[in-house]
Amino acid sequence: MEYKNRDREELFSKVVKAGKRTYFFDVKETRGGDKFITITESRKNFDEQTGRFYYDKSKMFLYPEDFEKFANGLNVALKFVETGEAPEEPEEEPRREPVPDIDEKILDDISSIDTNF
User: Fold this and answer.
1) Residue 39 DSSP code
2) pTM listed for this prediction
3) What is the C-alpha to C-alpha distance for residues 37 and 13, in angstroms, rounded to an integer?
């Protein structure tokens, strides 16, 4: 089975070189036309046994529905690094799942079950 365009062509790419690490910020598009970002960290290492350099790569995918929360979290972490103080953040309310309506007949049936064995 052949995978065509498996890695998806980049629409945009930004390379950031930082010492032994290089970061790649690539914007790609799904088959459905949604854009997403891949962030790749590439680190140059030396293998003492073979005497050769090699690259370790780590990749993460960031999807549009997470862009804002990711950016906010990154900004909070960066501010902490700059100031040493954790910013005050409003607590997120716990996610509440809706409770389905319960049929009163079912409740009557359940309450009439004999549990004295």
Assistant:
1) E
2) 0.62
3) 9
